[in-house]
Amino acid sequence: MEEKLKKCTVSKKCGSCQYQGISYKEQLAVKQKKMNKLLKKFANVKPIIGMENPFYYRNKVHAVFDRDRKGNIICGTYEAKTHKVVPVEECLIEDKISQEIIRTIRDMLKSFKIKTYDEDTGYGLLRHVLVRRGFSTGEIMVVLVAASPIFPSKNNFVKALRKKYPQITTVVLNVNDKKTSMVLGERDIVLYGKGFIRDNLCGCSFRISPQSFYQVNPVQTEILYKTAIEYAGLGRKETVIDAYCGIGTIGLVAAGKAKNVIGVELNPDAVHDAKINARENKITNTRFYQGDAGEFMEKMAEEGERADVVFMDPPRTGSDKKFMSSVIKLAPSRIVYISCGPESLARDLEYFTEHGYTVRKIQPVDMFSFTDHCENVVLLRRK
């Protein structure tokens, strides 16, 4: 493959890819060794499932906009541990079309007299551009993150952009007027299309809004979720909790094999999308609630309600003792833990094994080639 001969020119400054210059086979071997070291005390760690193609897999591409010392408009990523922008012409792990769209926007700014935002002075308009592409549907969302809701010649800008990329199905203006390191603000203004895209995963269709969490590597996500569903051992008679449910991905995929699924998520926008996703997939045995999943399960336990399986897919920092103690109180027969942080996973498995559960299976899945991140699916059973 041609890309194997390529080397990223900004990897040292960018810092996102720790395994640049290492063959993919070697990367997998390093990750396997790391997973074995961290997790083998709990159970046998299965061989890592790698990607068929480890390049251009990210369906979500973000670029920050700035000017260089000569005043030229640049777009790229922040240098590791700084807010200095590193210009990026090509990234080897981000979707190619999405990258092209971002470079085209950069080249359009001058003719439309749109200034980039300066973090120090607070002057300027365009802060970031986010592009999300549904790999199975081909739908593309462009999110322009600006410091003001007033975007000059917005209709003509969108028209010019879509003339070059007619496959763009929606354009959203996100307003971020705060001095913050957060990329997205709270307000979205739809400039073109529906304000969301759709993608298909494990036989279900999912609506993805600008703020929604959706796995960035859809090919490996299919493998990840199918493994999780298999580990749950569903037989159409179980009550399932999908904690940290996001837009309902795992819960809706599991619904076809369970009696009923309850999804709990803090983000109200994600819950809104989850309910729509259930309705549009004609899935009637799911309920989604906005709130803290730990508190929800504690209340279930207090009211004598039961769950047979809990899916938990926490952030990289892992879960916390308050949440895990609520799972213990609910006492499901099986917990399927989907982890993107092996160190926090090892810590959390320690807690569960001290509170009545045994680890039965551990399956690493490589979702992020060239980085040191690795996902794991773990099955725990109550003793």
From TrEMBL:
Its EC number is 2.1.1.190. It comes from the Bacteria. The keyword S-adenosyl-L-methionine applies. S-adenosyl-L-methionine binds at Q215, Y244, E265, D313. GO terms for molecular function: rRNA (uridine-C5-)-methyltransferase activity. Coiled coil: none annotated. InterPro entries: MeTrfase_TrmA_AS (IPR030390), SAM-dependent_MTases_sf (IPR029063), U5_MeTrfase_fam (IPR010280). The active site is at C340. GO terms for biological process: rRNA base methylation. Keywords: Methyltransferase, S-adenosyl-L-methionine, Transferase. Belongs to the class I-like SAM-binding methyltransferase superfamily. RNA M5U methyltransferase family. This is 23S rRNA (Uracil(1939)-C(5))-methyltransferase RlmD. The gene is rlmD.
